[in-house]
Design goal:
This protein is an alpha+beta fold. The protein has helices at residues 66-80, 98-107; strands spanning 43-47, 56-60, 84-87, 90-94, 114-115. The longest helix has 15 residues, at 66-80.
Length: 116
């Protein structure tokens, strides 16, 4: 089925236009291309803020598509054997796995990864 171009959700902030050539501005954000692993500057750190005293390993500095971030996060969580989440350019891994995560990243080709 073809996508309806007259969807009301695309016109939420426009009340009325008398211009016959008017077209609605649709926000389309482009994700940046994923840099190769050797160009990524990843920072691995321990974070305890706003987590009720629990510590998490936080990997920041990833530049690329959200899908690639989720793949890397899944690989790290699987190899550490714990849970976590990957979103907004960050990977959170439950527990203190800084050295193990750094070793895994180095094996994957992320040579500029470092512990803060």
């Amino acid at each position: 089925m073809a996508k309806n171009d007259n969807d009301w959700k695309n016109r939420l902030n426009v009340v009325y236009s008398t211009n016959p050539d008017f077209s609605y501005d649709r926000e389309e954000s482009e994700e940046p291309e994923t840099l190769s692993p050797e160009k990524q500057l990843l920072r691995v750190q321990l974070d305890k803020r706003n987590r009720n005293g629990k510590s998490v390993t936080l990997v920041t500095g990833f530049t690329g598509k959200e899908e690639d971030l989720k793949d890397l996060g899944k690989k790290l969580k699987t190899k550490c054997g714990v849970g976590g989440v990957s979103k907004d350019g960050e990977i959170l891994i439950q527990g203190d796995f800084r050295t193990k995560v750094l070793e895994i990243l180095k094996k994957e080709g992320y040579v500029k990864a470092r512990i803060i």
